[in-house]
C-alpha cells in the first residue's frame, strides 16, 4: 500500500510538516529557557555592581551602637548590631528586588557566613540547599550558576569582614516559572502538532491526488494504447512534465503501431505468398516439430491433418529416406533433394536449412508435384519404344522378303510380284507412319502455318466423303449412309484438317465393322455447335480401353489393326488437329460387339 506515489507523497508531506513543527517547538523551548537563564544572569550582573557590592559590604560591617540597656551585656550589644546589619543588607536587596525579578519562583536570602544558615529571606524561606554556589561563597568567593542543564539558578556573594565571611547574599531561582512556561508551551505545541497533522494530512492528500490522478489517467490510457487503441490518447500543447510524458507515449504508440502494421503487412504478404504457392511448404524447428505448412503441402501429401508431425517419423512414413540428423550437418546454403511417390502422385522434396540469429533455426521442405513430368517422361519412353516397334515390324518384313528374293534368283515371276507387293505395301505403311508422326510433331510444336481459312460447307464435305468411301464399304457389303438432321451453317477453317479427321473416323467405322454392317453419318446444328456423328454396328471397344483410345499408337487389338493398315495414330491426330484448328472436340462411346459412336463437335464462329 505504501509503495504507491500517493502514500509516499502524503507521508513525506506530513513528515516534513511535523518535523519542522517539532524543530520549531524545540527551538522555542530552548529559546525560552535560554532567555530565562540569560535574564537571571543579566539581572544579577545589573544589580550587583561594584557600588552595590560596596554598599552591601558597608552595611554588613557597619557598627551601630544603640543606647545601652541596664542588664544587657556585651553579647546583647553585638546581637543588636548584627540584626541591624542584616536589616540594612535586607533593605538594600529589597530595594532591588524589582530589578532582580524576585517572584514566587525566585527569592533572595541572607545567610550566615560561617554555617550558611538562613538569617532572613524575601519569601520566608528558612532552609536552603547548600549548593556549590553557596559553598563557594562561604569559602569567600562570589559564585553564580545559570546553566540550562541545571534545574535551578543561583547567585551568592560573600560579605566579608577582613578574611572572614560574615554574611552571604544568596539569590536563587528554582525555575518553577520556567517549568510552568515550558509546560504551557509544550501543551500549545502538542495542540498545534495535532492540528498540523490533520491539516497537513488533508493538504498532502489533495496535493498527492493532484499528482497521482493525472498519472493514473495516463496509465489507463497507456494501457489502452498498448492494447492497440491508438485513439485512446491525443497529443497536448502543454509543456509540463506529465504532458511531455503523454506526448512521448503517443509518439511511442504511433511508432509501435506503424511498425506493427508494417510487420503485419509483411506477415500477411508472406502468408499469402506461401498459401498461394503452387508448391507445398513445410517448416520444422530444430526439434523436428512442424511449425508451418501451406494448403498445397496438405493437398500434395494427401493429409487432412498435420497435428503432431515429427520430422523423422513423417519422412520415414513416406519413404523419403532422410532424417533430421542428415540435414543438420549439411553445408550452409546447401539443399538435399528426394523423390517420393504418394498413391499415383510423384513428389520432389527439396530440404534446406534456415537461420535464426545466425544459427540453424530449422528445416524448410519445398514439395513440388512432378507427376506431370514423370508421366510425360513415361509417355516419351513409351512413344520411342512404340515408334521403334512400329517401324521395325515393316522393316523386318521388307528385309526378310528382299533377302528371300535375293537368295532365290530363279523364283517365278508370280511369286516375285507377290513378294514385291508385300515390300511395297510395308514401305507404304512405313511412309504412313512417318507422315503421321510428322503431322503429330507439327501439331505438338504448333506449326500450323497461317493460311487463308477455307469456307467449309460441312454438309457438302460429308456428302463427298461418304460417296468416296462407299466403294470401300461395298467391298464388305456394308451400308454407308449420310443422314443430315438439320441445316448446318457454313464455317471457316482448315478444310484439309476437318476432312482428314472425318475420313479417319469413317474409315475406322468401316474397318472395325464386319461384313454387311451399317455405318451412318449424321450432321446437325445443336445450339452453337455443329455436330458430326459416325455410328457403326461393328466390333465395338471394351469399356476399359476407351480412356486410352486417343493415345498415340494405341490400338485395342494390335494384330487386327495392323492387318487393316492402322497405325494407332489416326484418332490422336484427329483429336489434336480438331482442338488446335477448330477449337473442336471429339468423343467416342462404344459397346463391345454392338457398335461405336464417334461425335465431333465444332463451334460455329
Ligand atoms: P488405327 O489407325 O489403328 O485405326 P486409330 O487411332 O484411328 O488408329 O484408332 C485407334 C484404335 O481404336 C484402333 O486401333 C481400334 O482398335 C480402335 N477403334 C477406332 N475406331 C473404332 C471403331 N469404330 N470400332 C472399333 N474400334 C475402333
Annotate the secondary structure layout.
Blueprint: H1 5-47, H2 50-61, H3 74-95, H4 97-100, E1 106-112, E2 118-121, H5 132-138, E3 143-145, E4 153-161, E5 164-173, H6 176-226, H7 241-276, E6 280-285, E7 290-293, H8 295-300, H9 311-317, H10 324-328, E8 335-342, E9 345-356, E10 359-369, H11 371-407, H12 413-444, E11 454-456, H13 458-475, E12 479-484, E13 491-493, H14 495-511, E14 518-526, E15 529-536, H15 558-563, H16 570-582, E16 585-591, E17 595-603
Parallel strand pairs: 12-14
Antiparallel strand pairs: 1-2, 1-5, 3-4, 4-5, 6-7, 6-10, 8-9, 9-10, 11-13, 14-15, 15-17, 16-17
Residues 504, 508-509, 512, 536, 538-541, 549, 554-557, 561, 566-572, 596 line the site of adenosine-5'-diphosphate.
Total strands: the figure is: 17
Coarse structural class: alpha+beta
Strand percentage lies at 15-25%
| Gyration radius, rounded | 68 Å
Overall tally of structural domains: 4
User: Helical segment tally?
Assistant: 16
Ligands, ions, cofactors: adenosine-5'-diphosphate
The CATH class of the largest domain is Alpha Beta
The main sheet orders its strands as: 2-1-5-4-3
The CATH superfamily of the largest domain turns out to be: Histidine kinase-like ATPase, C-terminal domain
Concise summary:
With 605 residues, the protein is an alpha+beta fold.
Written account of the structure:
By secondary structure, this protein is an alpha+beta fold. It is 52% helix and 20% strand. The chain folds into four domains: 127 residues, Beta-Lactamase, CATH 3.30.450; 93 residues, 2-Layer Sandwich (Beta-Lactamase), CATH 3.30.450.20; 71 residues, Signal transduction histidine kinase, dimerisation/phosphotransfer (DHp) domain (Helix Hairpins, Orthogonal Bundle); 150 residues, Histidine kinase-like ATPase, C-terminal domain (Heat Shock Protein 90). The chain is built from 16 helices and 17 strands. A hairpin with a 2-residue loop joins β4 and β5. α2 runs antiparallel to α3, α6 packs parallel to α7 and α11 runs antiparallel to α12. It starts with a helix and ends with a strand. The chain binds adenosine-5'-diphosphate. The site of adenosine-5'-diphosphate (ADP) has 23 residues, from α14 and α16. Adenosine-5'-diphosphate (ADP) binds next to α14 and α16.
Amino acid at each position: 500500500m505504501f509503495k504507491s506515489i500517493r502514500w509516499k507523497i502524503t507521508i513525506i508531506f506530513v513528515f516534513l510538516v511535523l518535523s519542522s513543527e517539532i524543530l520549531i517547538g524545540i527551538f522555542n523551548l530552548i529559546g525560552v529557557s535560554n532567555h530565562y537563564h540569560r535574564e537571571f544572569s543579566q539581572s544579577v550582573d545589573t544589580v550587583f555592581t561594584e557600588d552595590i557590592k560596596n554598599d552591601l559590604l558597608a552595611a554588613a560591617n557597619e557598627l551601630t551602637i544603640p543606647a545601652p540597656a541596664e542588664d544587657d551585656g556585651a553579647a546583647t550589644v553585638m546581637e543588636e548590631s548584627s540584626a541591624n546589619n542584616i536589616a540594612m543588607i535586607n533593605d538594600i536587596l529589597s530595594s532591588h528586588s524589582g530589578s532582580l525579578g524576585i517572584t514566587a519562583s525566585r527569592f533572595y536570602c541572607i545567610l550566615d557566613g560561617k554555617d550558611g544558615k538562613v538569617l532572613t529571606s524575601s519569601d520566608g524561606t528558612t532552609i536552603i540547599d547548600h549548593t556549590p554556589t553557596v559553598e563557594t561563597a562561604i569559602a569567600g568567593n562570589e559564585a553564580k550558576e545559570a546553566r540550562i542543564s541545571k534545574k535551578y539558578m543561583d547567585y551568592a556573594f560573600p560579605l566579608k569582614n577582613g578574611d572572614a565571611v560574615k554574611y552571604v547574599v544568596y539569590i536563587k531561582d528554582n525555575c518553577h516559572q520556567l517549568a510552568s512556561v515550558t509546560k504551557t508551551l509544550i501543551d500549545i505545541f502538542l495542540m498545534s502538532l495535532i492540528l498540523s497533522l490533520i491539516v497537513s494530512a488533508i493538504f498532502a492528500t489533495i496535493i498527492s491526488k493532484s499528482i497521482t490522478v493525472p498519472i493514473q489517467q495516463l496509465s489507463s490510457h497507456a494501457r489502452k494504447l498498448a492494447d492497440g487503441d491508438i485513439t485512446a490518447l491525443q497529443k497536448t500543447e502543454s509543456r509540463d512534465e506529465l504532458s511531455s510524458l503523454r506526448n512521448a507515449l503517443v509518439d511511442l504508440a504511433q511508432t509501435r503501431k506503424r511498425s506493427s502494421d508494417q510487420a503485419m503487412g509483411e506477415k500477411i504478404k508472406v502468408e499469402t505468398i506461401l498459401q498461394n504457392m503452387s508448391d507445398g511448404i513445410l517448416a520444422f524447428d530444430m526439434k523436428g516439430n512442424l511449425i508451418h505448412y501451406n494448403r498445397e503441402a496438405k493437398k500434395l501429401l494427401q493429409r487432412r491433418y498435420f497435428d503432431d508431425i515429427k520430422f523423422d517419423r513423417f519422412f520415414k512414413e513416406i519413404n523419403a529416406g532422410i532424417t533430421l540428423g542428415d540435414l543438420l550437418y549439411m553445408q550452409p546454403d546447401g539443399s538435399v533433394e528426394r523423390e517420393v511417390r504418394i498413391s499415383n502422385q510423384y513428389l520432389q522434396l527439396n530440404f534446406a536449412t534456415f537461420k535464426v540469429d545466425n544459427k540453424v533455426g530449422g528445416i524448410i521442405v519445398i514439395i513440388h508435384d512432378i507427376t506431370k513430368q514423370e508421366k510425360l517422361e513415361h509417355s516419351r519412353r513409351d512413344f520411342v519404344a512404340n515408334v521403334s516397334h512400329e517401324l521395325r515390324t515393316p522393316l523386318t518384313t521388307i528385309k526378310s522378303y528382299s533377302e528371300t528374293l535375293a537368295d532365290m534368283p530363279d523364283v517365278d515371276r508370280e511369286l516375285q510380284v507377290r513378294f514385291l507387293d508385300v515390300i511395297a505395301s510395308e514401305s507404304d505403311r512405313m511412309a504412313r507412319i512417318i507422315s503421321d508422326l510428322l503431322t503429330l510433331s507439327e501439331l505438338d510444336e504448333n506449326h500450323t502455318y497461317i493460311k487463308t481459312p477455307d469456307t467449309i460447307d460441312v454438309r457438302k464435305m460429308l456428302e463427298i466423303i461418304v460417296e468416296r468411301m462407299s466403294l470401300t464399304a461395298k467391298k464388305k457389303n456394308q451400308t454407308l449412309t449420310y443422314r443430315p438432321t438439320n441445316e448446318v451453317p457454313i464455317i471457316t477453317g482448315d478444310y484439309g484438317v476437318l476432312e482428314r479427321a472425318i475420313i479417319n473416323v469413317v474409315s475406322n467405322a468401316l474397318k472395325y465393322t464386319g461384313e454387311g454392317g451399317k455405318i451412318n453419318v449424321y450432321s446437325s446444328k445443336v445450339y452453337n455447335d455443329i455436330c458430326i456423328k459416325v455410328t457403326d454396328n461393328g466390333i465395338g471397344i471394351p469399356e476399359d480401353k476407351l480412356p486410352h483410345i486417343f493415345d498415340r499408337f494405341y490400338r485395342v487389338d494390335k494384330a487386327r489393326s495392323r492387318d487393316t493398315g492402322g497405325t494407332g495414330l489416326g484418332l490422336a491426330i484427329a483429336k489434336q488437329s480438331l482442338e488446335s484448328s477448330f477449337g473442336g472436340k471429339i468423343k467416342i462411346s462404344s459397346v463391345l460387339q454392338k457398335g461405336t459412336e464417334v461425335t465431333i463437335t465444332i463451334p460455329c464462329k
